[in-house]
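Hi X.,

You mentioned you wanted examples for the new student's onboarding notes, showing what a folding record looks like when two proteins sit in one file. Here is a clean example. The first protein comes first, with its sequence line followed by its structure tokens.
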Amino acid sequence: MLLYAPLERYRARYTELLSKPVTGWMERNWREVDLVYSRLQDDVLGPTGEPDRMRMGFVLDARKRFGQCSSQIEHLLKLIEDELVDDDDVIYFEDFWTPGIEQVFYALDLKGLHPKMFAFCWAQSCDRYDFTARMGKWIKNFEAGIATGLTGIFFAHPLLRDIFSCEYGHRDKLHVVGLPFDSRDVFGRMPTGPSHEWKREDQVVFSSRWDTEKNPDFFLEVANNYWKRGAAVKFIVCTGHDEIRSNNPELLKDLRIAEKSGIVRVYRGLTKEEYYHHLAHSKIQFNCADQDWVSFTLLESGVAGCYPVYPNYRSFPDTFLHHKEFMYDHKSAPAACDMIDRVLEGNYWTQSEIFARSWIYFRFNFTWLRMLKAMGIDDGLRISTWHSEANMDPFEDNPMRNLIYNRQGV
């Protein structure tokens, strides 16, 4: 039995698609292969009482996060107390940062139980580019303790694993699996009709958080360059939140000035379908982050056929399998503008062009299966040739066969 502790869901974040019951990116695939699992209680809203709004936090709400984890931990402790957990079970925490997880370690030790326990590490304080780095003075001991208690830890990218290993060790239990994703679900939310026939504008989309580590000021610098020379290129910012949030108030001031001046346009409170509409009718998805650890916006844009322009820096070269046609020199505005010009002047939205680069994003559809293999619970599942043929190393340069594309329907 797999005991699943999902992330709390936010409409404005990836967690709504990732962790939704039954139809989420994880559970949808598990059910297709007849995996036996149980979802730990997560139907409480936490102290905020609002499922889709973050009041304290930029990625997750501090108060709601605590409320959800408390509910899940209490549920798991009850199962342990009632002797409904044994050594053959696997416990999966969808976030390495799970408040109260030490109570589970304690209870299992008291009972003499040794189920496997895994968690996904999305961020960590020992990465100097992560917004959690400033929390290191109090969180690092906690991170080290969690790492010791878990059987295995999942990472989206080798570099994040390497940083973690240098800080905490445990190299043998660290698994690079890629980013969980389901392009079938994303494609199903896109506008109808073939993607190569969608009417695209000379439009550049920015979808990253408006936080320091994402370098939104660099995006504004690039947009301002086009505005000054009178180029007919639109730069838009998309968010699912009612208002843009930031860990730097000065960045919000710069955005308001740019929006008022007409340098950029901001679309707020978007549903996923509305956001995908913008991707489907834009030519470029722009990223300038110091780190994204494989970006959901990248993968979503790939399904939409929106051409990615990303920095040749840290994790991005591996994500693109060192295909330099996607990347510009990090924090070089002239290089970024040259790349944008080249893409806008080219013809990258024909059916063959979109098809040729789709395998780069398609690899991450099978992250869930790599995770199950690492957990040791893939035996006996209804794994088809379709699954096993596509289950490759996400950072290995190995294009998919046409059969796999055709079955995927993208």
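Then the second protein repeats the pattern, sequence line and then tokens:
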Amino acid sequence: MTHAIRIHSYGGPEVLRWETVEVPEPGQGQARVRHTAIGLNFIDTYERTGLYPLQLPAVLGREAAGVVEAVGPGVTQLKAGDRIAYAFNSAGAYSEARVLPAERLVRIPEGVDDKQAAALMLKGMTAQMLLRQTYRVRKGNTLLVHAAVGGVGSLLVQWAKHLGAKVIAVVGSTAKAQRARELGADHVVLSNEDWVAQTKAATGNRGVDVVYDSVGKDTFMGSLDCLRPRGLMVTYGNASGPVPPMAPLELSKRGSLFLTRPTLFHYIPTRASLVRAASEMFDLVAKSVISVHIGQSYPLQEAARAHQDLEARRTTGSTVLLP
């Protein structure tokens, strides 16, 4: 028996409950992991509210780091005692321990601690997907990044600068603006100002090549207005709510734009693709090209408070929950 944060109904942070749960022995191809750090992500709030439905009761959480406690039959790539991290396509990380397919676990390299790994797996591989696969950013590209000092946004800014891109960062406060500049952003605009006009001015009215928008409803149409003709709109989150239905003609009116809504797990469907994405990410961390800023941590039992702070925009960088 162990403990986990579970929900029995959808709603606000108050539905999160600290409960005793049973963790089975690992079966064929599985490993049992004892968590040491758990990543907090906006998708956790979407599942808590029912925007992304789960089978209830459910344990939230998509990424974590920990130690392998035991492996099941057929597992040869891992052994008890290995430090591992994962981002998984179904929830269950808000727990002291869980059983997972061994093929979805990656070893944590030397020089990366468990908190960093837990904060990096989902967000770091999302950044890899966005910059290296969804739109292959190259030197000379111009990007607009929303929530630029958040968990994914802060990685996007650093990684894009490493690739030689010009980055326009949208943030929610003057304090966050300073942090965006420290990360390397070329231009920083506040979300409560006319960031569309400022983006156009910063590009000589040309528009950006690609927008990375994790905010959703409140920024979607403005983001389209920031793109150059045939630019790419990447909507990958719903922090302000889901984007309302939109007529495809809106893309034509703004210059034959492209629109995509990527999901990480469609980009890492095989172990080979998973290891490739994780290795590229960890390599840049090891070389100090990108750093993960863990702005705050909470005991796992206080997940409700962590959700409240995340939704109120009181967090910066990444957040981890500690069992």
